[in-house]
Design brief:
The chain is α/β, with parallel strands linked by helices and about 375 residues long. It has helices spanning about 5-15, 20-25, 40-55, 65-75, 95-105, 135-140, 145-165, 205-225, 245-255, 275-290, 305-320, 330-335, 345-350, 360-375; strands spanning about 30-35, 60-65, 85, 105-110, 110-115, 125-130, 170, 175, 225-230, 235, 260-265, 270-275, 295-300, 305, 320-325, 340. Helix 3 (about 40-55) packs across helix 10, helix 7 (about 145-165) runs parallel beside helix 8 (about 205-225) and helix 9 runs parallel beside helix 11 (about 305-320).
Length: about 375
């Protein structure tokens, strides 16, 4: 069963369409990099469902490193004639590489994958840069691509957005930019900053996100780019990738298989989390209504929780238990050293967006969708 055959997923998408600022997306063209990722793919789904339900004439183009993977991911999606798939690696920064990929984009049309009409980078109203490695093993095994995609891949889009009259770009940043809360107290607000040791392999991800944010500001000042910067808390949901090695993602996959939940630390680390539907809808809201060139925390309500408590929740949902295990050496290199990284969501609410899903609600919806699809994970 595909994701779109899940009743719970369809209901989730219909609910998120109700949160969409429809007038801001009516008749618009949207480019999403990292289009098969957890958040990027859900953003695309919300827009495609909105087009199906409300006839908004939204056109979506997703970029991906694997066209075949994207075709599989969007099999059965609504409004297939409005979806284009372009094969582009955000770490490929050769001049013209993105434009070439767009010219060769595949048009997803009623299951018949055909060469699409020529698309140019200048034709998009919204750019959403989601493409990035986002989990420990990837940070450790692909440290260069981790940095390049978040800095030079972003620059490729910023150039296109700056040259496109009236376009707006969202750069998906991360709670990781805050580093470690040395005091262990309080939540990070947008003007706060913690400690990052830049001389370790793991630093590539948070430092690249920091540079990416600075690059957005530089393009705004020098070239007039219009950007928004959602800083996402640790994100989870029914669109996670099978390759994802983040702790919560591994917990979910273990629970899905009714296996014991493996905890690879003491579990005292406490973080803020964000359900992927809250993350995707917040990104779209900030594109429509956000203040230009402002970074904003994005998290779900009641979702500050320790890894140990998270593992116990999922063990309870799956009828299993929590066991402790040492991490693999390569995986350990990519682990965050932060023991507390919780966020303040006050700024996002003051801008008019309210997240919906508590950690209990998000986990229950995630597991329900996986049960309906027989454990469908891309």
């Amino acid at each position: 069963m595909t994701l779109y055959e899940s009743k719970a997923y369809r209901e989730l998408m219909k609910s998120e369409v109700q949160r969409l600022e429809t007038e801001s997306f009516k008749g618009k063209r949207v480019l999403i990099t990292g289009g098969t990722g957890m958040v990027g793919s859900m953003i695309a789904d919300i827009l495609l469902y909105a087009d199906e339900l409300l006839e908004l004439d939204i056109k979506v183009c997703v970029t991906t490193r694997s066209r075949d993977k994207a075709i599989k991911r969007f099999e059965g999606c609504p409004c297939q004639n409005k979806l284009m798939i372009a094969e582009w690696d955000a770490a490929d920064i050769r001049p013209g590489a993105l434009q070439e990929a767009l010219r060769k984009a595949v048009h997803k049309n009623n299951g018949d994958d055909k060469a699409g009409t020529e698309v140019s980078a200048e034709r998009f109203d919204y750019y959403i840069h989601c493409a990035s490695t986002t989990h420990p093993k990837a940070y450790a095994s692909n440290p260069i691509d981790t940095i390049v995609a978040n800095v030079f891949g972003l620059q490729t889009l910023l150039e296109a957005a700056a040259e496109s009259n009236g376009s707006r770009l969202a750069f998906l940043s991360s709670v990781e930019v805050y580093g470690e809360n040395k005091t262990g107290e309080g939540d990070f607000a947008e003007k706060d900053m913690g400690y990052i040791d830049c001389n370790i392999l793991r630093a590539g991800y948070p430092e690249a996100k920091r540079v990416g944010e600075a690059l957005c500001m530089a393009y705004a000042e020098e070239k007039g780019a219009d950007t928004v910067i959602p800083r996402l808390a640790r994100t989870y949901g029914p669109t996670l990738l099978s390759s994802d090695t983040k702790a919560l993602s591994q917990f979910i996959k273990k629970a899905l298989c009714k296996e014991d939940i493996v905890l690879k630390s003491s579990g005292t680390q406490t973080y803020s989390y964000c359900f992927s539907a809250d993350a995707a809808s917040a990104v779209l809201y900030l594109l429509a209504k956000g203040k230009s060139n402002e970074a904003v925390n994005v998290l779900s309500p009641g979702s500050d929780i320790s890894l140990k408590a998270l593992s116990e929740k999922l063990a309870g949902l799956s009828g299993t238990k929590v066991v402790f295990e040492l991490p693999e050496e390569e995986e350990k290199k990519g682990y965050s050293t932060a023991t507390r990284a919780t966020l303040s969501g006050g700024l996002l609410e003051s801008r008019g967006f309210k997240s919906r899903y508590t950690i209990d609600e998000g986990l229950e919806i995630t597991m329900e969708i996986y049960r309906e699809t027989g454990g469908y994970i891309v």
